[in-house]
TrEMBL record:
<keyword id="KW-0547">Nucleotide-binding</keyword>
<dbReference type="InterPro" id="IPR003439">
    <property type="entry name" value="ABC_transporter-like_ATP-bd"/>
</dbReference>
<dbReference type="Pfam" id="PF00005">
    <property type="entry name" value="ABC_tran"/>
</dbReference>
<dbReference type="InterPro" id="IPR050173">
    <property type="entry name" value="ABC_transporter_C-like"/>
</dbReference>
<keyword id="KW-0067">ATP-binding</keyword>
<protein>
    <recommendedName>
        <fullName>ABC transporter domain-containing protein</fullName>
    </recommendedName>
</protein>
<dbReference type="GO" id="GO:0042626">
    <property type="term" value="F:ATPase-coupled transmembrane transporter activity"/>
</dbReference>
<dbReference type="GO" id="GO:0016020">
    <property type="term" value="C:membrane"/>
</dbReference>
<feature type="domain" description="ABC transporter">
    <location>
        <begin position="19"/>
        <end position="137"/>
    </location>
</feature>
<dbReference type="GO" id="GO:0005524">
    <property type="term" value="F:ATP binding"/>
</dbReference>
<dbReference type="InterPro" id="IPR027417">
    <property type="entry name" value="P-loop_NTPase"/>
</dbReference>
<dbReference type="GO" id="GO:0016887">
    <property type="term" value="F:ATP hydrolysis activity"/>
</dbReference>
Length: 150
């Protein structure tokens, strides 16, 4: 669960508020799209969640105030898909695992690549592709070794 409570965000400690009175709750396991016109505050909300800017109010993730979390741990636990997705020339696998070793995608079932056999990592990638409806498309081609380019 993620909760923002009565928040005010400023880009600088003494600067004017860019967000004021922000309160919302995201239930556990929910997938959320934050949409709105330019300047509506989408990136600012993300900046608050990542502790990029001073934030007045409370941000709680799974009943823990994010101020009590280290930045590395906090940021490793959040996943963001931007509107300007980057696609690097290479294979599907290299696009899904651009920086190795990685932390587990799903700790109980997806071991970190540095400690896991390649087959376990591939199983995790296939599960993710199945969840987004791309498994069949890639199986009809060269699987995780399918070449992609911009």
């Amino acid at each position: 669960e993620v909760r923002l409570q009565d928040g005010v965000l400023r880009y600088h400690p003494q600067g004017p508020p860019v967000l004021r009175g922000v309160t919302f709750r995201v239930p556990p396991q929910a997938k959320v799209a934050v949409v709105g016109r330019t300047g509506a505050g989408k990136s600012s909300v993300l900046g608050a969640l990542l502790r990029l800017y001073p934030y007045e109010g409370r941000i709680i993730i799974d009943n823990v105030d994010i101020g009590a979390l280290g930045l590395v741990g906090l940021r490793a636990g959040l996943r963001v898909v931007t509107q300007d997705a980057a696609l690097l020339s290479g294979t599907v696998r290299s696009n899904l695992l651009p920086l190795q070793p990685l932390q587990p995608l799903d700790a109980p079932t997806c071991p970190a690549p540095a400690r896991a056999p390649a087959a376990d990592i591939d199983a995790c990638l296939w599960r993710a592709l199945r969840q987004v409806g791309l498994e069949g498309v890639l199986q009809a081609r060269e699987g995780l070794d399918t070449c992609v380019a911009e």
